Each structure stands twice: as C-alpha cells, then as structure tokens.
Amino acid sequence: MPLNRSMRLLLPWLLFALLLALPLTDPSSNTVRLLFTTAVWIISSIAWNLLGGLTGQVSFGFAVFYGLGAYTTALMINSGRNPFFAFLGGMGIAVLASFLVGLPTFRLRGPYFAIATIGVGEATRVIMNNLDITGGASGYRIIERTPFRQLEHYYTAVIVVAIALAVSALVVHSKFGLALRAIKQDQEAAADLGVDPYISKLWVHAIAAGLTGIAGGIYARYHAFIYPGDVFAFPTSISILLMPVIGGIGTVWGPVLGGVIFGMVEETLTVKFPNTHLLLYGLLLILIILFEPDGLVGLLRRLSALIKARRSREDSGSNGTDEVLRRRSRVEGR
Amino acid sequence: MTASDYLDLFIKALLLAGIYAAMAVGMTVIYGVMKIVNLAHAGFLMLGAYFAYELYERFHIDPVLGAVLALPAFFLFGIGVHAVLIRWLPKSDTPTLASLLLMFGFWLVLQNLGYLIWGNEESSILMPRTFASLHIGEITIPKVSLIVFGAAVISLIVLQIIFNRSWFGRAMRSLIQNPYAAQIVGVDDRRTSRLSFGLGTAFAGFAGALLSMLYSFNPDFGRPFLLRSFVIIVLGGLESVSGVALGAVVLALLETFSVQVLPASYQPAISFALLVLVLLVMPKGIAGLLQRKRRVA
User: Fold this and answer.
1) Around Cβ B264, how many Cβ atoms within 10 Å?
2) Torsion of CA A309, A313, A315, A318, to 10 degrees
C-alpha cells in the first residue's frame, strides 16, 4: 500500500476539514459552484460503485434515481417543506423506485441486467416527459422563500459526500459487503455459501439509489430548475457510470477520484465541446478496460508497487521483483 | 375502428418487423458466437444510416444500393474492430462486464465522432419515393416501407442459407451450441469469431442504412433500437434467424397496436414493458430458458 495505516485513517478527515474550511479563503462563486457540482457527482459515483463495482451489477439506469430524487425534492420544497426534509423524501422515493426496478431486473444476470436498465431509464424519461404535475418535458421550477446562499448548498453537498463515503466504507468492510463481493466473483458459489444473491442485490441497489436520490435532490435545489431531458437523460446515467469505472471500481476511493476528475473536466469540457466531451470518456473507458481494469486507483497501485520494487531492489535484491510479480498477478487475476 | 383499419395496422406492423429482425440479427450473431453483448450495435446502426446518407448526398447512390454496399464495407469495419479491440478480451462462456463496458466505450466514441462530423441536428434522406404509397383497396402502404421490408427479408433468407449450408455457418452454429465440442471437431474458434463479428457488424450497417430511409437520424440514432434489438433477442432466443424474426413480429405488433391504447409518446416505453413482462413470465430470464433448452436437447 502506498500509504501507511495511520495516514490512511487520517487522510479522509484532513480532506474533509480542508473542504469545510475552504470558504474561509473567500473563493469566487465559480470555484464554489465547481466544487459543489463535483461533490454532487462524487455522491452518485460512490453510490453507483456499491452496485456496479462491489457487486458487479453494471447499471445504465441511475439517472432514474437521480431524477426521482430531484423531482421529489422539488415538489416537496414547493409545497413548503424544509429542504433537508425534502432531500430525505427524495431518498425515500428513490429507494422505493429501486425496488420497483430491481424486482424484475435482478432476475437477469450481468449484461442482461445492464441492458434492461437502459430500458428502465428510457421508460422513466418518457413517462416524466408526459407527466402533467411536473410540467412534462418543459421542466419544473423550484421556488424557495429563503434567499439563495451558495455556501449552504456547498456544505450540504460536502457533508453528504462524507456520509456517502462512510456508508460505502461501512458496506465494504461489513459481512454484507463480503457477500456482495462473493456475488461479483461467483454468484452460484455465493448462493451455495448461504448468500441470497437476489435479496442482497436488492438491498445494495436500494442503498445506492437512496444516495443517488439525495444527490439529485441537492442538484435540483441548487439549480432551482429541472427538466427530464437533464436529470433523467441517458448521458446522466452514463456520467454516473463512467466516474467509478475511470477511478477504479470496487475500491472505496476510486469513485471519489473518478468523480473529482470527471467533475473538474466536465465543467470545462462541456462548455467548449458540448457534444463531444463524451468522446474522451469513451476512449478512456476502452483504454481502462483493455489495460487497467482497476482504473486510476489500480494504475496508482501498480506505479507505487513499481517504485517500491525499485527501492527494495536497490536495498536487497530479488525480494522486490517477487512483490511486483505477486501484485501484478493479483491485478490481472481479477 | 373498422376491419380495414386493423388490416392496415397489421400490415404496417409486419413491414416494421422485417427491419426489426434485420436490425436484431447482427447483435444476435455476435452474442451467440462470442458471448459479447454488443452495445456498439447502436453506433453501427447510426454509422450505417450516415453511410447511406453520404452516398446519396455525394454520389446520388440510391439508399437501397447504399444498404447493399454497406454490407461489405461494414464487414471489413467489423473485422478491423475485432482486430483492434475484441481480440484482446479474455475468452468467456458467459458475457463479461469487461466486454460490455468495452463495447459501451466504443459506442460512446462512435456516437461522439458522429457528433463531430455531422453535428447534432437531424438528417434524413428525402427522395421522390419517400412519400409515395401504394393503394390496394382501402389500404395504403408507403412504398419505402415495402422496399425496406423486401431488402430485410431477402437479407435474412441469405443469412439463413449461410447458417445452414456453408462451412462457416455451421462453424458458427457449432460455436453457439457448444464452443468446446466445436473446437474438438476442428472449428477454428478465432477465425470464426472474427468473421462472425464482421458479419454482425455488416448486418448492423445494412439495417442502419435501411432505417435511414424510414426515419430521420442524428448521431444518437441507434439508442432506441438497441433496446428493441435486445428485447427481440430475449423474445426469440439466440440460435436461429426464425426466432429473431418471431421476436421482431411480436414487438412490432405490440408497438403498432399500442397506439390505440396509449399516447404515441409512450411508445418507447413499450419495449421495456415487454422486456419486464417476458422476464416475469420466464423468471430466470434468458439464462434459465437456455438451460431448459439444453436440458431438453
């Protein structure tokens, strides 16, 4: 590991404190907006990773939960509820939707599930485009009585990122997480060992959907205007999928790294190349699948192993190469 | 609605089924032989449409001929894609997530190259015959649909002949049924995979070119058809052209007649609803169905 244990425990807290203290430096509203957007992406990236990375169920339909979270929050705020209560409402609806989606689709394995989720996304967008109470395709506006305070939005997003990370870490290190990883490796074997793949998938799907729903809600409250072509769009689902894959699926920090890179690059690229920014991600995806299935985190691990090996070769000799071989075989064995 | 209205809709559905079958069959071949769910199929369909469009705009080549020309062009393209991307994937009996994501990445690349080249506005091929139609009694049939249907059906018959009569077709079928036994009796797995990917891509390009005569298109053209192709595969199974045709007929009938009950804007949701329905009726999905088949065989 590149960092020793105490550093690994300390680093998230340092990062968190840094992000909370950031407004003290009086940043421009553009910087805050960029960080806010990145934080929202990171939440959904962490959420997707629980289902896609940890459990190995690739979903192309997370915009459903993102959008439902956004719309529920919008409707609740407009009916006079507290925004934070509205986020919870968004989460609740997203969780309910996750069961509705999961009950039929989890009867399918791997890639079949993945394609079915494309259908879920399309169907939901079509329905939302035609739903009258939310203004259909022309969108829905949120009217808040309180004045707009950007930093409040920023803090909400950062705190939810921390919550999402904590949830993710809890799941990864729990017995439940172990079961999920077993399902990813071999569903039959996992079932033989007493794991119910269907139920486990449903639960992790619900957790991921809930987090994504909150992310959608936070996004909706900030932008104050949402429409199905944005929050329910297929590119939104793609974005949520790309971040953890680029960062490194199945790891705790991969999705965060992916989210940071995606958020930062997205903001600049979308403005300059509104239609073609996904080209870059497509190429990146191909390269990652062919050369480094563990994403950027895997790449970093490999680099640090190389450096370590070189260092220990200088010290003692053959030990280091063994280490590299062992690590490499582990990475490729996946 | 009168009886002739129903007949009218029925004929429209059948005509639609022809192109749906041609569209799904490319994905089926690739899936069957290589166990790769080809998400880039949507990109191939889109490229096929623009292939016909460019040929028509630049050289005034009739789109029907364009579709025929798309077959060899996309066959070579598929072979190239196989050499650059697919060859490096680890072999597997079941579809892997790596192959799924790889093809998805390739679709993104194709789609966005499309945006770079053709922009995001809708294009369409408009010819004198686009709006011409045939009148038989009270029934009117658009000529283009008829032509597209004919081309699709001929291509499917040719494919069926290739499947049944040629060495390559038998090799493909043997790989679909049992890859290990196929290799034991001397089927060259690599070569057959390469050619099947070429064949699947060729059919996708062909179907895309045919679709370009019926609909307007943009670089995101293939997406709704991707789901439809998949539904057809789920419905019709993987191992025969006739199964695909059957699935296509069911989907086309449902889509066409649903307009009577549902607003047309809901139509894209039909294929998904159908998918869910099929899944509920066959709880184990395709895998279960295949296992059942294997046990019977």
Assistant:
1) 8
2) 110
Give the distance, in angstroms, between the CA of residue B165 and the centroid of all CA atoms in the same chain. Answer: 22
Largest Cα–Cα distance in chain A? 72
CB contacts of B105 in chain A (<8 Å) are 281-286, 289
Number of helices and strands in chain A (H, E): 15, 2
Partners of residue A175 on adjacent β-strands: none
The pTM assigned to this predicted structure is: 0.83
Same domain for A50 and A167, yes or no, is yes
CA distance A309 to B283: 51
3-state secondary structure (DSSP) of residue B139: strand
Helix (H) or strand (E) holding B94: none
**Chain A residue with Cα closest to B282:** A107
Contact call for residues B37 and A111 (beta carbons, < 8 A): yes
Could you tell me the residue ranges of all domains in chain B? 15-222
- What is the number of domains present in chain A? 2
Closest partner residue to B100 (CB to CB) among A58, A277, A286 is: A58
Render pLDDT for A41-70 as a digit per residue (tens, 0 to 9).
999 999 999 998 889 898 999 999 999 999
- Residue B205 in contact with residue B63, Cβ under 8 Å? no
Q: Quick one: tokens of A10?
A: 């300390």
**A118/B226 CB distance under 8 A:** yes
The pLDDT tens digits for A264-278 are 887 777 777 766 777
Q: Which domain holds residue A100?
A: 29-291
A302 and A195 in one domain? no
For residues A230 and A88, membership in a common domain is answered with yes
Same domain, A35 and A91: yes
Closest residue, chain B, to A114 (C-alpha)? B100
Grouping H, G, I as helix, E, B as strand and the rest as coil, residue B123 is: strand
- For residue A149 the two structure tokens come to 């305070």
Nearest CA in chain A to B226: A115
